[in-house]
Amino acid sequence: MEINQSFQIPFPADAVWRCFQDSAGIVACLPGASLSGPPEGGKLPLAMTVKLGPIVASFAGEAQMTLDDAQRAGSVAGGGSDRKSGSRVKGSARFLLHEIDGGHTRVDIAVEYTIAGSLAQFSRGGIVQELAERLTLAFRDNLKARLEADQPAAAPSAAAPAVTAEAAAQDAVKHAVHDDAAQAAAKPVAVAPAAPAAALDLGSLFWAMLMRRLRGWFGLSKQP
């Protein structure tokens, strides 16, 4: 099955494309997804956790990512499986960035996939289309937040005041007192591993989608 999605983001195409070149960062923008190891030559060791009621599927697999800098386009193809639920997924995604007026960017995405196992019930066209729309919006919001966080800090509006001789002397004493602490701080410190990505809750997405349909059927979204 193939689904097509598109969204706009208020950043220039060059800035968005730089974000797409950061494979770990762009994977983190997808709900439930993360890298299980370092990328090697375009190969991405992927992990994705999906929750559906009492079923929690932890997919492990590998994908190959290719990028075309000249066209600001790329693709990701791969697959994975979950041993507990017996679910398997295989697919590919193509993406293309377009510069539009006002320094904004449109991102077009085309996805082809197959799902087998207990999660195959979500491979039906209508359900998948709405779930894809919600996932695309979540991806867009995460990408926007990442781009906003990468914006350079504003430059100071005024020059720093000159340092007086008295202040310089006090600073020298302070550095002498804390010299041992500074040396200790320079020693390597063990860094805790990053927390795994939160599971993609298909159940919550499904119920939100169902409520939207019910409101449409009964005219509840219309104002009196």
The multimeric state of the shown protein is: single chain
Specify the helix fraction band: 25-40%
Question: What name does the CATH topology carry?
Answer: Alpha-D-Glucose-1,6-Bisphosphate, Chain A, domain 4
* Main pleated-sheet profile: 8 strands, mixed
Content of β-strand: 25-35%
CATH superfamily: START domain
What spatial form do the alpha-carbon principal axes imply?
Answer: globular
Q: Mean pLDDT, nearest integer?
A: 75
What separation lies between the terminal Cα atoms?
A: 40 Å
Number of helices: 6
Number of domains: 1
What is the name of the CATH architecture?
A: 2-Layer Sandwich
| Global Rg | 24 Å
Secondary-structure element series? EHHEEEEEEHHHEH
What topology does this entry show?
Layout: E1 2-9, H1 13-21, H2 23-28, E2 33-35, E3 43-52, E4 55-68, E5 73-82, E6 87-100, E7 104-116, H3 125-149, H4 165-177, H5 179-186, E8 200-201, H6 202-217
Parallel strand pairs: 3-8
Antiparallel strand pairs: 1-7, 2-3, 3-4, 4-5, 5-6, 6-7
Helix pairs in contact: 3-6
Description:
The chain is an alpha+beta fold. It has a single domain, classed as Alpha-D-Glucose-1,6-Bisphosphate, Chain A, domain 4. It has helices at residues 13-21, 23-28, 125-149, 165-177, 179-186, 202-217, and strands spanning 2-9, 33-35, 43-52, 55-68, 73-82, 87-100, 104-116, 200-201. A hairpin with a 3-residue loop joins strand 6 (87-100) and strand 7 (104-116). The protein is globular, with a radius of gyration of 24 Å. It starts with a strand and ends in a 7-residue tail after the last helix.
